[in-house]
Specification:
This protein is mainly α. The protein is built from 16 helices and no strands. The N terminus is likely disordered.
């Protein structure tokens, strides 16, 4: 026993002789986070990305109508049912395909095929076509059609038109106004009846639907919609803590449940309240060495598996929203860049399963990157 005691004492004495600095090195190894290339959107990239919506907003088939059939009279072609938004495989993808082209034209007036794009927009978004789209929502089984994902993109399209200082934008916004007003009223009627948020990583995600609607309300000064979204967002999410980030992504996710929620709360909360909330909701984001593996796509010809490219863009725009104007979270931009860089090279020239919608996600994510 004497020898064991002496050995233990010797180890203790030696440990005491290790400098505090060395102890720190031993117990707290530094992790070097690799800075990744900052993705940018320029005229060349805009021309590349514009090809996706150009080739789909007037492509009727294949098409997924998501339609409830009430009688034989409901059996019509996609273009008969949706003369404005019949392309790009489904209604919501057609809507954000139009948003993509408006966004690119607004940023890059010298966009290749600009005249052809404007012609397509004017053809699709005519007053007559928008009236038919409005009428569809009054069908017996269509009250909740595209709730709230398609609604959100419709308001994002309207917001983009109002940002674009061009006579065509004013004409298109005027044509779209009837449908825009209807969607706003649908939000106002629906949100008070929704007792619990929908937290999935696909179309029904409540946080995503509220974020885009909130952007629209702020841009166009719709105080009623803005106040309602602030109230419902707080009711849904204010007490949330410890979002299970390790559960993301699910196999078919194209939206990040945790980050979309955080990006919404960044919009609706005062800065100090948001920082306090975020510390409880995603405390790991404070770590300067925070990393997050990108969603990996195993088969881009599979319309569901390719959703994971979308989740990468969703994470990117949400992380950039969280980090905006918050220096203590600026390190999150690197992770956002990593996610964009993983998925961006794959979406042009890819199969229609991803091409009909991913371009919009890429453009929105790239727009979220702060430019010098």
């Amino acid at each position: 026993m004497k020898y064991i005691y002496l050995f233990t004492l010797s180890v203790f004495i030696l440990s005491c002789n290790i400098s505090e600095e060395k102890k720190k090195i031993i117990t707290e190894p530094k992790v070097k986070i690799e800075e990744v290339k900052i993705p940018t959107i320029n005229l060349e990239e805009a021309n590349r990305l514009s090809q996706l919506p150009i080739h789909c907003i007037q492509t009727e088939y294949p098409n997924k109508l998501n339609q409830t059939i009430g009688s034989d009279s409901d059996l019509k072609t996609p273009q008969e049912l949706h003369p404005a938004f019949y392309g790009c495989f489904d209604w919501h993808s057609a809507v954000h395909g139009h948003w993509s082209l408006v966004s690119l034209l607004r940023q890059y007036p010298d966009l290749e095929h600009a005249d052809d794009i404007k012609r397509m927009l004017i053809e699709n978004l005519s007053q007559e076509h928008i009236k038919a789209e409005v009428d569809y929502f009054f069908g017996t089984y269509n009250t909740s059609y595209e709730r709230t994902y398609g609604w959100a993109w419709l308001l994002k399209l309207t917001e983009e038109l109002h940002k674009w200082n061009d006579p065509i934008a004013k004409e298109l916004a005027s044509n779209l106004q009837l449908l825009t007003d209807l969607i706003v009223e649908k939000y106002v009627a629906f949100l008070p009846t929704l007792n619990y948020p929908i937290r999935s990583g696909e179309h029904p995600n409540t946080a995503f639907g509220l974020s885009f609607a909130y952007d629209y309300a702020k841009t166009l000064g719709n105080e009623r919609l803005q106040a309602l979204i602030e109230q419902r967002a707080k009711a849904f999410y204010m007490t949330d803590t410890g979002c299970p980030l390790s559960w993301e992504p699910s196999g078919f996710d194209f939206l990040s449940p945790c980050f979309e929620e955080a990006a919404l709360m960044k919009r609706v909360l005062p800065t100090e309240d948001f920082k306090s909330w975020l510390s409880d909701f995603l405390p790991q984001l404070k770590d300067k060495n925070f990393t997050l593996e990108t969603g990996k796509v195993s088969d881009r010809s599979d319309g569901k598996l390719v959703h994971l490219d979308g989740v990468n863009f969703s994470r990117a725009w949400s992380l950039n929203e969280i980090a905006k104007d918050l220096p203590e979270y600026s390190h999150l931009k690197n992770s956002a860049n990593q996610h964009i860089n993983y998925s961006l090279p794959n979406i042009v020239g890819d199969s229609y399963e991803g091409g009909h919608w991913l371009g919009s996600f890429a453009i929105y994510a790239l727009n979220s990157v702060e430019r010098d």
